[in-house]
Amino acid sequence: MIYSFKNHIPVIHESSFVHPLAAVTGNVIIGKDCYIGPGCAIRGDWGEIILEDGVNVQENCTVHMFPGKSIVLKAGAHVGHGAIIHGANLGRNCLIGMNSVIMDDAEIGDESIVGAMAFVKGETKIPARSLVVGNPAKIIKEVSDEMISWKTAGTKLYQQLPADCHESLREVEPLREIPKNRPKQEDFYKTLNTFLRRQESPDN
Known about the structure:
InterPro entries: Hexapep, Transf_Hexapept/Carb_Anhydrase, Trimer_LpxA-like_sf. It comes from Croceibacter atlanticus (strain ATCC BAA-628 / JCM 21780 / CIP 108009 / IAM 15332 / KCTC 12090 / HTCC2559). This is Phenylacetic acid degradation protein. It holds the Pfam family Hexapep. It is a single chain. By secondary structure, the protein is an alpha/beta fold. The chain has 2 helices and 20 strands. It has a domain at 2-142: UDP N-Acetylglucosamine Acyltransferase, domain 1, CATH 2.160.10.10. Helix content is 16%, strand content 31%. A hairpin with a 4-residue loop joins β19 and β20 (138-142). α1 crosses α2 (192-200). The longest helix has 24 residues, at 145-168.
């Protein structure tokens, strides 16, 4: 659901995917290979919202701001399910955990990770490569190379997802019983601990 507002029409690169149950309104620019999940509201009615290439904004997220503000979610920013970004800027390749809230004029540094359900107060400046948790959110340590490698690998899955959705996502009637030839899904993602163990394996 794409809406114009006061003559502003969203600009969305053709490689990106906006789910039909999401709402993108007004002065919004979405770059290449972005994924916008169902239930998202990206409201550029009071200011400009820019999603650079490879950003994902997952299910039931809200991106908005106070009047007169403009915000940028930089390339590779990863916004987990249910998060709220209100008037905040997100750095390159950062991760915003599920159901977290990032408030007005906050700045999340490049490659930082904000834990699930964290509350980042307005005007907070988070340096690059920070691991942030809690309410109110606090920096607890620096993000390691291994952690950012895991995060980047997960984000690459979301950068592939728009193409997969364009190719195969269709509205259908449900099956009424499980077919005998039901396809198996590939196990292509590793948890952080599994990822780290795999990195430490002598076979890699």
